[in-house]
Amino acid sequence: MTVREYLENEPLLFDGAMGTYIIEKYPKYAKEQLERLNLTEPGLIQQIHEEYLQAGAVAIKTNTFSANCQTLQTDRKQLEQMIQKGWALANAAVQKYDDTRFVFADIGPAVTEGEEFLFYKEMVDIFLQCGAKNFLFETQENRAGLEQICSYIKEKEADSFLIVSFAASPEGYTRAGFLAEKLFWQMQQSDSVDAVGFNCISGPKHLLERTKRLPAHRMKKYLTVMPNAGYPAMLGKRIYYGKNQNYYGKSLIELLEAGASVIGGCCGTTPSDIAEAGKLLAHSAFSYQTLLEDRRKAQREYIRKASAQETGNGEIRGMQNSQNTFAQKLQAGKKVVVVELDPPVEPDIDFFMEGAARYQHAGVDAIDIADCPIARARIDSSLLACKLKRELGMTAIPHITCRDRNINATKALLLGLNIEGVNNVLTVTGDPVPEAMRHEVKTVFSYNSAVLSRHIQTFNEEIFARNPFMVSGALNINAVNFDSQIAHARKKIENGVSVLFTQPVLSERGLENLKRARAELPIKLLGGIMPVVSYRNAAFMNHEMAGIEVQDEIIRLYEGKNREEGEELAFVISQNIIDEMSQFIDGFYVITPFKRIELVLKIVNYIKNRYVDGKM
Predict the structure, then answer these.
(1) Would you say 197 and 163 are in contact if contact means Cβ atoms under 8 Å apart?
(2) Separation CA 409–CA 226 (nearest Å)
(3) Alpha helices in 266-406 (DSSP H)
(4) Hey, which of 65, 113, 226, 574 would disulfide with 199, CB 3.0 to 4.6 Å?
């Protein structure tokens, strides 16, 4: 019997967790790479497979979730041995049963960016050589490589049964920042996938709520849901999941009633949880045949009424926000002027507000506000942005970093900004905390700026559709290895960034890289201008400020200059840079040095007269 034939008559009950169950029973393996136990402790692995089968599991997963060369830091030969042994152990366990027990080759998410198909193919080829027909791609964070690898498997093994399962937080997002339900509906369109659903991160309650929101009439594939046992707590130095088999078992039955055809357990679940689910299912009034018939009837009616266009998958970018005048100006092809003002370190903000007002009067389009530069506490950039919006009616672009907030705190912040009418943000990873402060200041850094941008675009689609954010990012045009910067910029663009602010151009390399960015990146570029005001300032920027390069010829020009001479030289050099970069950019991004507002106003006036109002 095949999995597909089985599912025409009965729901498929999977096993539970392998990893957390091993650690619960044998704490000594807590720091081991558990896939290696296929070779070092094969009896233990087969025993756990048998426990789940005895508990009533119809399908079991091979102990190969992280069996890849990158995660295990191993070579191809040893990887083959681990996968082959893992496959053999699972199949040995089901030999005692009839043909209504199934083994699934278990594969976790890709750990290489840009080469996901090749990552999966290495493992899939080994499994196919073993005779595998059923595959589970679980705990996935995005779709990269999945449709391609599933098509590849179907070409090699037409009778294969392929499951793709996304890991969704209670809020509905994957670790990579994608909206899990959107990934779910996109994967529903794949001709090569047989079942799609969710597993891990969330407990039964949240995955049940997610399942109930899925309209049955749109479901083209079998629905699979495998929740965690709940949410873990720390006892001493160990992760502990609460024990309530009856609650968990009832939850799996509720998932079936809500439309799932494939159920099972993820982190924290044990054979006892699966046994309880099997027992409750055997005595339940739930009719799987009725579920299938109702779903198919709903699908037929939907197909009859629905238009050819699939809804809900359109990408929204902040430039489409009619309330965002800054975004609209960029979209219209007009050059913009943005000035950066550092947030104060003390509550006295008169200088900041007066400076912003003067820049506004000079015709600046937006004020850019850094988020605690050099990782030292300053007034919060988002709060200052709200103050500028309320009191001056001015567009502000606060930086949002990954350094100090997890995704929940970031979402809460964005909700606040949105209701205040602040709809432009610049995502940055954030400067690291200085070594001397790390004993008292802890960072977050649970994701980078590209992932943060993806989160914000996902929020735009889900909750900010009527008033979305335009997301900007940073581009280091002074990098020695600019290929990597181009690649990272492409990832940011893919994740929803609409504008890139460059580091200041103060060298030939910076200018050439800016030209290259213009030629290669399909995005709006704001060229960075940071006036150098003294020899000491130039030397400091060149040696102490990450991402900034001041050409030696420029540094030498400042030797022996007093304050007035230094400022005049700064204006002349900035003029030359503006003229050289103007044809390669969509706007100017001027950084205010040492509160030199008068100097920056001269630069702004030059830009306005020559390239904005003068339209050169």
Answers:
(1) yes
(2) 27
(3) 271-282, 288-305, 325-331, 350-361, 381-392
(4) 226
Residue 616 burial (CB count, 10 A): 11
DSSP 372: S
Pick the CATH number of 335-612 from 3.20.20.220, 3.30.460.80, 2.30.42.10, 3.40.1570.10: 3.20.20.220
How many alpha carbons fall within 13 Å on the CB side of residue 432?
5
The b-or-e profile of 488-517 (16+ CB within 10 A means b, else e) is bbbbbbebbbbbbbbbbbbbebbbebbebb
Q: Which of 32-36, 376-380, 606-610 has the lowest mean pLDDT?
A: 376-380
Question: Is residue 107 within 8 Å of residue 136, measured between CB atoms?
Answer: yes
Given a cut of 70, whether residue 236 has pLDDT beyond it is no
> What are the pLDDT digits (tens) for 430-440?
555 444 444 44
CB-CB neighbours of 463 under 10 Å: 14
- Give me the sign of the Cα torsion angle 453, 547, 581, 511: negative
pLDDT digits (tens, 9 = 90+) for 435-459: 444 444 444 445 677 888 888 888 8
Domain with CATH 3.20.20.220 in the chain: 335-612
Buried b (16+ CB within 10 A) or exposed e, 152-175: bbbeebeebbbbbbbbbeeebbbb
Judge whether residue 488 has pLDDT over 60: yes
> The whole model's pTM is what?
0.69
Please tell me the distance from the alpha carbon of residue 196 to that of residue 219, in angstroms, as a whole number.
10
For 47, the token pair is 């025993």
**Measuring CA to CA, which residue among 50, 86, 52 is closest to residue 67?**
86
d(CA 468, CA 422): 10
Give 321's pLDDT tier (boundaries 50, 70, 90).
low
CA 120 to chain centre: 20
- Give DSSP secondary structure letters for 416-456: HHHHTT--EEEEE--PPPPGGGTTT-----SS-HHHHHHHH
Distance CA 216, CA 226 (A): 18
pLDDT band at residue 54 using 50, 70 and 90 as cut-offs: very high
Residues of the chain with CATH 3.20.20.330: 3-305
Domain 3-305, second-level architecture: Alpha-Beta Barrel (3.20)
CB hemisphere CA count around 469 (13 angstroms): 35
Q: Tokens 């590849």 appear where?
A: 152
